[in-house]
TrEMBL record, chains A, B:
It catalyses: an (S)-2-haloacid + H2O = a (2R)-2-hydroxycarboxylate + a halide anion + H(+). One of its GO terms (molecular function) is (S)-2-haloacid dehalogenase activity. Its EC number is 3.8.1.2. The lineage of its organism: Bacteria, Pseudomonadati, Pseudomonadota, Betaproteobacteria, Burkholderiales. This is (S)-2-haloacid dehalogenase. Keywords: Hydrolase.
Amino acid sequence: MSATTTRFPRAILFDAYGTLFDVHSVLAQAEQLFPGHGDALSQLWRQKQIEYSQLRTLADPAGSHYRPFWGITLDALQYAARKLGLPLDTVGEKRLMDEYACLSAYPDVIAALRTLRERRRTAGAAQLALGILSNGNPQMLDIAVKSAGMTGLFDRVLSVDAVRAYKPAAAAYALGTRAFNVSAREIVFVSSNGWDVAGAGWFGYTTFWINRANTPAEVLGIAPRGTGSGMADLLAFIDTLAAPEQP
Amino acid sequence: MSATTTRFPRAILFDAYGTLFDVHSVLAQAEQLFPGHGDALSQLWRQKQIEYSQLRTLADPAGSHYRPFWGITLDALQYAARKLGLPLDTVGEKRLMDEYACLSAYPDVIAALRTLRERRRTAGAAQLALGILSNGNPQMLDIAVKSAGMTGLFDRVLSVDAVRAYKPAAAAYALGTRAFNVSAREIVFVSSNGWDVAGAGWFGYTTFWINRANTPAEVLGIAPRGTGSGMADLLAFIDTLAAPEQP
């Protein structure tokens, strides 16, 4: 370990959907099925997916209304199509769900993850573990990681399925501190979702918001520790944290 | 008490915002401030208001991130204006919040509540109590009930503020069974919000969904016990429940 770096941060945890995987890469398929409505369907599908996950956990944090994320994703698609008056049949539904199973990664993701792994190799194995902490159920995440070409880039792929509670429930975020056996403050939690960054911040993580779409900050009384427009900004942020404290 | 009625239901509990009070009656004011954008602002304001309340409770059901609904309503307005790129100054903000404080009732509400109270008077005081169970904080609800001309129509006006947990948390719904000292099944819970109807159903209430906007049912694996397009349908539903069991 270099004498000029501190041991902080110890790990980086990434949200998956919307952060690593581009959930709107289904847009092209949706637009092909429903010309002129692909964007609206894609947006509402995503909004309802998040809403349904949160409602089920809020109604019972112990998980009696829990349904795996793949099922919630299908429920949300069906609602969104009905709300928009789009005639979604089982063939169209399967095409969109298949597309969702194999989302593209954002173009800046793979190279940045490789850079972070290279730093880890240079610095020693105990430094800078990489992980995913996602609402997706394990099978979904497994397929998504493989199809996006991220196999072997993460030390841990954590699914909230283990606690049957969706983010921003504390039980979901606690999977990260438990997996890496370090305090929340020593973990950088990265998400493109404003609500996820707020939840992770409330839990105690050092948060970084990748604001890809240049949307305004959520008004939730808690700001991310760092913000940027993509993975390059995250790398710069990590450098700042790893720099020695000024005397 | 008439010999032809059963003791079921014992009470009717109404959601307030979106069910009794028309949250989109702020639309005219919003449209005046931002011509061509009133509807979008009104819709996004409402969506974020609900989202923020749920996020705060989900992150900690014990209430450490709780913020009274009036504050959340302001937060949501500020976010919605920024997201839509609308230059909301403090004067405009005050005008919209003042409007929100004194929402109109839907046109069918007052007469229906009077009908229900009249039935109660005929049937005896123990029968068919009327209440509100709302996310709104007590001061908000007090002003809203008065300005909508509903003073004296309810036996109880219950605010989730008492438990610092927003619907659909079970602690919020439990305020109703505690206040009326009857089982959830004996209370008809009425809401225009699909997520609220689902949450109340999960809790055990006999639910009625007033689907004013003719939107599709939420795909949450639980259906309301009754559905209608307005208060007249609710009255008919109550009649059905109160009818004697067939031998």
